């Protein structure tokens, strides 16, 4: 079964940047749509960005202009580039594809 693993989270000051990775055990990202979600403390999981197999990208209004999603040509990894981070971006970030989820990676933005 395909496995998804997120990495790249950490503690960063407001205005800083992070790059998250979602690594798949198979090169599914050339064939399947995927998405990044996040869940802040005491909040529901929300969609952050999505990437279709046709390379169409969509972003939540709260991250437009600051976040970017991109996949590697071999289809094994999708990145979430996060710039100008804000404290409200704090949360656990998950990637999902084929109704599968990774374990999440923690992002903490200090003010």
What does this molecule look like?
There is one protein chain. By secondary structure, this protein is mainly β. It is 0% helix and 50% strand. It is built from no helices and eleven strands. Strands 2, 4, 5, 6, 9, 10 and 11 form a seven-stranded mixed beta sheet that branches. A four-stranded antiparallel beta sheet has the order 1-3-8-7, with no helix packed on it. A hairpin with a 2-residue loop joins strand 9 and strand 10 (100-101). The mean pLDDT is 97.
Task: Please name the defining characteristics of this protein.
four-stranded antiparallel beta sheet, 0% helix, mainly beta, 111 residues
Euclidean distance between termini CA atoms: 40 Å
| Count of extended strands | 11
Order of helices and strands: EEEEEEEEEEE
The SS-based structural class is mainly beta
Helix coverage percent: under 10%
Ranges with pLDDT <50 over ≥5 residues? Answer: none
> How large is the share of residues in beta strands?
over 45%
The shape, in one word, is: globular
What number is the mean pLDDT? 97
Number of helices: 0
Q: What is the CA-based Rg, rounded? A: 13 Å
Q: Which sheet architecture does the biggest sheet show?
A: 7 strands, mixed
